[in-house]
């Protein structure tokens, strides 16, 4: 019995992609359409398991087909590709269990891929290997501002302006073709439609066919402007933290703010402050809600000469309540405006100079932002930022700009307030320092002197440098210079206390080394707090005593730089003294140095700020001082000026005290000395010596008082002191009588009772002379009395 075609063959039309699978998963039928779709002929696949053609997991695909009757499955193409096919499963009717599978390309997935490319929010472009456009999606077309047809099949450089940016873009396209590797980079550009700068993140990658042949270059351009501006904003804030407030100077801080925002945020910037801020006073607390007068402290512009400025530096202007700066101060918030706003136009119209500046500018349209400067609840001033609007730069200030400006202004305001507080403290400390320093110093018989004090101009503030010229008995003089460690009010107050202590100890007429020992103890006590813990007070000091009679100078130092002496013959030498410990160290001795100074020698005492002012070491600075001191000068004032000009920079970083003294000498005719035995009978002889000398000097009118003084002092020396006894008479600007003896016990005044036989001598001396006192000597003591010369002389 003849049989017809098998059932499987009857249900496999040649034009459709059909396959027949038996109950064991073996392919038993294969159509011509299936061959065209997969590349395999019927002979290649029949009799083989269908699972061999599945690219993925065949069991998963089979379960999905049986469950729903349809699935999208990746299959193995003969050429190695793995296309996804939409499969449908239908059971065959008959005695044997079998299935018919129909297949078709997954056009839905392909269509979605095309739509995804075309409708992506990211600009996507396809170039061939010759850098010609092949495809552009909608976002790319919008970015370029022209229809896709304008670019298709055209060379990239033919579609853009020739620029470094375009050539760099082309080099990256060529690099992908040359290396076959993807590239990633960022750049800035300006959109022709939006006229704003944008940051773009570019990805380029090679496009290949299944044979691994390079067909073109795919490109995506992501607009990363927001992220880039955020990074720029953070970088600007970081720069503000480091670049604003570099010094505690109000004007400099304002200038740093203006220079920071131009040109990145504005074309012109100005900073106006209240006068109280510039003077260091306490400014207004809270917002300002009335006509406010502000003073221009800083401004900066893209254009040299700052032509936009209607107010000069240092000039003041009154801002009406409706003006943007005044509104910003009243509300405490940034105020944005542009020409055309009624309040802004009204303000400009009120100020002739501002109106003229706007008329003279290339553009008559501008955007303005006023930002208040407030710190710690106090109003300091206002910063004004201006953009000149043009078709190329039409962007006005927005909320992001205001937020950034507010943060910058806030940081600057804190720095301005810190500088204001520093100015106030420095002014107070300087006033205190100057009040504690010598205001006027009377001329001395022993020396001619000149001095300078320069406060530090650095952020460290006023220090504790001081100097003094203290008259001593016997026409001697003490020259003092010192430096308290530290700066500010504390250093100034400590300096005042030490200066007072030196005057007190000098009045006792202690030798220099003993005086520094007592001063060291005092500093130790000052540096001890209530709990007994040692503090951090320290100071250096140099104390010198010069005697014009003996022409001897005795010096002692406590951690202080040595003095320099200019001899009359032009030699300049550094006096070798024992530096000694700093005051406050305690427990260490001080050594005195004695030398003879000829008449006319110039002694220079100074603080370390002079010789270390140029970041030089002490030896180099001292050598420079010696050179400057040796420059010929007509006066000591000129010597001071020469030294300071030679050694100091324009802004010294530390306080500087300089004291120069030219020595004088008393000739033998002005001094008379007699050695006396310890015999009461010698008192009459001493009176005669004195009377004869006063007659010789032509001042007989002083004889009566001087005889009484000599009688009392010599009598006391004989009765209570002992040999050797010496009487010395000195005639200079005053008449000085001195009696020395071997006793170290100092006399003191007491009130004698009615029937006392003694006790009235020193009281009589004190009443008859201008001043009297006692000083220790190496062998005992000296009692001295000083009286004015007769007025006829």
Q: Uncertain spans, ≥5 residues at pLDDT below 50?
A: 1-14, 191-195, 530-534, 752-758
CATH superfamily of the largest domain: PPM-type phosphatase domain
**Residue share in helices?**
25-40%
Summarize the biggest pleated sheet: 6 strands, antiparallel
Overall spatial form = elongated
Strand order of the largest sheet: 13-12-11-16-15-14
Rounded to an integer in angstroms, the radius of gyration calculated over CA atoms is: 50 Å
Distance between the termini: 174 Å
CATH topology of the largest domain: Phosphatase 2c, domain 1
The count of strands amounts to 31
**Number of helical segments?**
22
Strand content: 25-35%
What is the CATH domain class of the largest domain?
A: Alpha Beta
- Name given to the CATH architecture of the largest domain: 4-Layer Sandwich
GO molecular function: phosphatase activity
Keywords: Hydrolase
Protein name: SpoIIE family protein phosphatase
Domain PAS: 16-48
Key traits:
5 domains; alpha+beta; Beta-Lactamase; six-stranded antiparallel sheet; elongated; five-stranded antiparallel sheet; 793 residues; 31 strands
Quick summary:
This protein is 34% helix and 27% strand. It is of the alpha+beta class. The radius of gyration is 50 Å and the shape is elongated.
Explain this structure.
It is a single chain. This protein folds into five domains: about 5-105, Beta-Lactamase (2-Layer Sandwich); about 115-225, PAS domain (Beta-Lactamase), CATH 3.30.450; about 240-425, Beta-Lactamase; about 440-665, PPM-type phosphatase domain (Phosphatase 2c, domain 1), CATH 3.60.40.10; about 670-790, Heat Shock Protein 90. About 35% of the residues lie in helices and about 25% in strands. A six-stranded antiparallel sheet has the order 13-12-11-16-15-14. Strands 2-1-5-4-3 form a five-stranded antiparallel sheet. It has a five-stranded antiparallel sheet with strand order 7-6-10-9-8, sandwiched between helices. The relative contact order is 0.05. The protein is of the alpha+beta class. The protein is built from 22 helices and 31 strands. The N and C termini lie far apart (about 175 Å).
């Amino acid at each position: 019995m003849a049989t017809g075609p098998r059932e499987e063959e009857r249900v496999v039309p040649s034009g459709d992609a059909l396959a027949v699978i038996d109950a064991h998963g073996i392919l038993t039928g294969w159509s011509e359409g299936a061959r065209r779709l997969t590349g395999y002929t019927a002979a290649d696949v029949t009799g083989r398991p269908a699972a061999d053609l599945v690219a993925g997991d065949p069991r998963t695909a089979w379960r999905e087909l049986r469950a729903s009757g349809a699935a999208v499955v990746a299959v193995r193409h003969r050429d190695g590709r793995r296309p996804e096919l939409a499969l449908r499963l239908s059971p065959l009717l008959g005695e044997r269990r079998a299935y018919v599978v129909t297949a078709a390309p997954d056009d839905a997935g392909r269509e979605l891929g095309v739509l995804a490319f075309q409708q992506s929010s990211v600009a996507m472009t396809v170039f061939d290997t010759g850098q010609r456009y092949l495809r552009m999606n909608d976002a790319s077309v919008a970015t370029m501002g022209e229809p896709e047809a304008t670019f298709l099949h055209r060379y990239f450089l033919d579609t853009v302006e020739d620029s470094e940016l375009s050539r760099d873009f082309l080099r990256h396209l060529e690099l992908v073709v040359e290396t076959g590797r993807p590239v990633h980079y960022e750049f800035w550009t300006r959109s022709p439609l939006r006229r704003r700068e944008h940051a773009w993140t570019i990805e380029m990658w090679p496009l290949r066919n299944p044979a691994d042949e390079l067909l073109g270059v795919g490109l995506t351009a992501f607009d990363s402007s927001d992220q880039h501006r955020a990074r720029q904003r953070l970088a600007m804030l970081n720069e503000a933290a480091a670049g604003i407030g570099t010094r505690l100077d109000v004007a400099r801080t304002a200038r740093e703010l203006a220079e920071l925002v131009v040109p990145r945020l504005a074309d012109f910037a100005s900073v106006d402050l209240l006068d109280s801020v510039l003077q260091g006073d306490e400014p207004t607390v809270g917002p300002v809600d009335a006509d406010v007068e502000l003073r221009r402290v800083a401004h900066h512009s893209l254009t040299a000469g700052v032509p936009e400025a209607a107010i000069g530096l240092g000039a003041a202007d009154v801002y009406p309540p409706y003006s943007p700066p005044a509104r910003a101060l009243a509300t405490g918030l940034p105020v944005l405006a542009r020409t055309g706003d009624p309040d802004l136009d009204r303000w400009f119209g009120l100020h002739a100079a501002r109106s003229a500046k706007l008329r003279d500018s290339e553009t008559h349209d501008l955007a303005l932002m006023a930002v208040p400067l407030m710190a710690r609840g106090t109003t300091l001033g206002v910063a004004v930022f201006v953009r000149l609007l043009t078709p190329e730069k039409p962007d006005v200030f927005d909320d992001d700009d205001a937020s950034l400006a507010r943060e910058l202004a806030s940081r600057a305001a804190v720095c301005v307030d810190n500088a204001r507080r520093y100015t106030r403290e420095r002014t107070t400390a300087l006033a205190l320092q100057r009040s504690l320093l010598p205001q006027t110093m009377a001329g001395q018989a022993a020396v001619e002197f000149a001095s300078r004090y320069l406060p530090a101009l650095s952020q460290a503030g006023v220090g504790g440098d001081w100097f003094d010229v203290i008259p001593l008995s016997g026409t001697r003089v003490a020259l003092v210079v010192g430096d308290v460690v530290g700066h500010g009010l504390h250093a100034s107050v400590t300096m005042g206390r030490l200066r007072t202590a030196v005057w007190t100890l000098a009045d006792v007429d202690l030798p220099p080394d003993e005086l520094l020992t007592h001063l060291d103890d005092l500093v130790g006590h000052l540096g001890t707090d209530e709990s007994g813990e040692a503090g951090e007070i320290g100071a250096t000091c140099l104390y010198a005593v010069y005697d014009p009679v003996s022409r001897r100078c005795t010096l002692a130092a406590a951690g202080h730089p040595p003095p320099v002496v200019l001899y009359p013959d032009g030699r300049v030498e550094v006096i070798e003294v024992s530096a000694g410990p700093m005051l406050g160290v305690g427990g260490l001795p001080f050594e005195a140095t004695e030398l003879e100074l000829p008449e006319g020698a110039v002694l220079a005492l100074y603080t370390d700020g002079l010789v270390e002012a140029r970041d030089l070491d002490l030896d180099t600075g001292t050598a420079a001082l010696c050179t400057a001191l040796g420059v010929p000068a007509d006066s000591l004032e000129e010597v001071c000026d020469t030294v300071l000009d030679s050694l100091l920079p324009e802004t010294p970083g530390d306080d500087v005290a300089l004291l120069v003294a030219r020595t004088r000498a008393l000739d033998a005719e002005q001094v008379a000395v007699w050695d006396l035995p310890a015999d009461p009978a010698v008192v009459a002889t001493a009176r005669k010596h004195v009377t004869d000398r006063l007659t010789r000097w032509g001042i007989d009118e002083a004889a009566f008082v001087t005889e009484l003084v000599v009688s009392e002092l010599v009598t006391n020396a004989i009765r209570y002191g002992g040999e050797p006894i010496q009487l010395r008479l000195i005639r200079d600007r005053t008449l000085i009588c001195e009696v020395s003896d071997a006793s170290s016990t100092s006399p003191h005044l007491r009130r004698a009772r009615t029937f006392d036989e003694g006790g009235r001598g020193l009281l009589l001396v004190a009443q008859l002379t201008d001043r009297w006192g006692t000083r220790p000597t190496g062998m005992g003591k000296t009692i001295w009395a000083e009286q004015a010369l007769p007025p006829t002389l």
